[in-house]
Design a protein that fits this description.
Strand order of the largest sheet: 1-7-8-9-10
Helix content: under 10%
Number of helices: 0
Shape: globular
Radius of gyration: 19 Å
Oligomer: single chain
Mean pLDDT: 84
Strand content: 25-35%
Largest sheet: 5 strands, antiparallel
Order of helices and strands: EEEEEEEEEEEEEEEEEEEEEEEEEEEEE
Structural class: mainly beta
Low-confidence stretches: 1-52, 54-82
CATH architecture: 6 Propeller
CATH superfamily: TolB, C-terminal domain
Length: 428
């Protein structure tokens, strides 16, 4: 099948270290302690019943695949890497049909029924789009994941049968399986388990092992069994968990990072033995990107530049990584062995760049979205001024629109937490 996923622009997690002096994201740090609520949520999230919005195989499914979508995938045509914030979307031949006319090229509030929902600091800190369905997904702290299948006009909770097992963390990343349309992983900080997996497109979830307070999750998709995972601990030095049994158990391979490293929290699995992790933050110490080729037993620095936010592994194999405090962008064309800084301070805000179906790169600038047509060498303004400095961004070819989100540290979802901007990438 030809399938799309929409990676998003993330300045890491709510209250993370990726914002700081000079950053316009408005985030604040809350410290690096372990989550205190790990025993409040059951380790197993399995639940009977189905959620109509969650499964592409049930009545009331979460939208239907576009002309390039289906419920299965041909692994031989799947781009290498993860369909996630770390990996570029897989668009196949690009023949994705929009399900509705392109919205106006202006920012429109699509928070809808989420507005005012009781929550906490980091209330809506994550937003992405499903690779196979017309389905936006956002995290609402304390209330799980919510999905929209009408472009943001309304939102419905995933896993509504969860009861006390509902996801309560503040979502930080979602990772879609390139070969199984119904499978994805979620990571989050504070409030209970830090990594969840669903095999039924969000109808039910299972908490994976005893991981807590997690900024990112990455999976080895070169292995059909999905055994190797990495999960980066939130604002904790030398805390990077690795699993070789699908997430049932975890080992802290962050202890093998050189002493004195900063927070090493954004993980990228290239294969079962080759991993990257970005290190930066306010704790002080050694920043950069570290690489292992032995499953985390040893790590070598490949740059000392302060990699921050989730990386983009583009469809041409290039890896892009934002720098802390709006200091620019670096890229690697040799799987993280070496890096070149392409963008200096002040052009882009710190966070995760995304790739459009035609290969152009989009990131957030100080005022507008920014777009690159030369593989990240230069960026130009795209569209009108954003209504706020977003924490994350995604693009939906099903809706021909960008979506951005923000959060604050009050106890309810903002009235203008999510906004949409119409943009058809096919139009010059």
């Amino acid at each position: 099948m030809h399938r799309i996923t929409l990676p998003l622009f993330v300045v890491l997690a709510a209250c993370s270290s990726s914002s700081g002096p000079g950053s316009s994201s408005g985030q604040t740090a809350e410290g690096s302690g372990q989550s205190s609520s790990g025993d409040e949520t059951a380790k197993s999230g399995a639940s009977s019943g189905t959620a109509g919005i969650a499964s592409g195989t049930t009545a009331g499914a979460a939208g239907q695949p576009g002309t390039a979508g289906s419920g299965t995938s041909d692994a031989s045509t799947t781009a290498p890497g993860a369909l996630s914030d770390a990996m570029a979307p897989y668009y196949g031949d690009g023949a994705v049909s929009a399900v509705a006319p392109t919205p106006p090229a202006q920012w429109v509030n699509v928070t809808a029924n989420l507005a005012g929902m009781p929550s906490e600091c980091g209330n809506t800190e994550y937003l992405t789009s499903h690779p196979s369905y017309d389905m936006l997904i956002t995290s609402v702290a304390q209330h799980g994941l919510w999905a929209s299948t009408d472009g943001g006009a309304s939102w419905k909770q995933l896993w509504p049968t969860a009861g006390a097992n509902q996801i309560t963390n503040r979502g930080t990343s979602i990772l879609f399986d390139p070969d199984h349309a119904e499978t994805f992983w979620e990571s989050g900080i504070y409030n209970g388990p830090g990594v969840y997996e669903t095999a039924d497109n969000g109808a039910t979830f299972a908490a994976l092992g005893d991981s807590h307070h997690i900024d990112s999750v990455s999976v080895d998709f070169t292995d059909p069994q999905r055994m190797t995972l990495l999960a980066g601990g939130h604002e904790q030095k030398q805390t990077l968990y690795r699993s070789t049994d699908g997430g049932n158990t975890w080992t802290n391979v962050g202890l093998n990072l050189p002493g004195g490293t900063d927070f090493c929290t954004t993980a990228l699995v290239l294969d079962s033995q080759t991993h990257l992790v970005g290190c930066s933050g306010y704790a002080g110490g050694i920043d950069g990107v570290f690489r292992t080729t032995d499953g985390g037993k040893t790590w070598s620095p490949t740059t000392t530049l302060s990699a921050s936010g989730l990386p983009l592994w583009a469809t041409d194999g290039t890896i892009y990584w934002s720098l802390l405090y709006n200091r620019g962008l670096i890229k690697s064309t040799d799987q993280g062995n070496s890096w070149t800084q392409t963008i200096p301070y002040g052009t882009l805000n710190t966070g995760h760049p995304i790739e459009l179906p035609d290969g152009r790169i989009v990131a957030v600038g100080p005022m507008t979205l920014m777009i690159s047509s030369d593989h990240g060498v230069s960026f130009q303004a795209l569209g009108t001024a954003m209504p706020f400095a977003p924490n994350s961004i995604t693009y939906s070819p099903y809706r021909n629109a960008f979506y951005i989100e923000q959060f604050d540290c009050n106890n309810q979802v903002l009235a203008d937490a999510i906004s949409r901007y119409g943009f058809d990438y096919r139009t010059p």
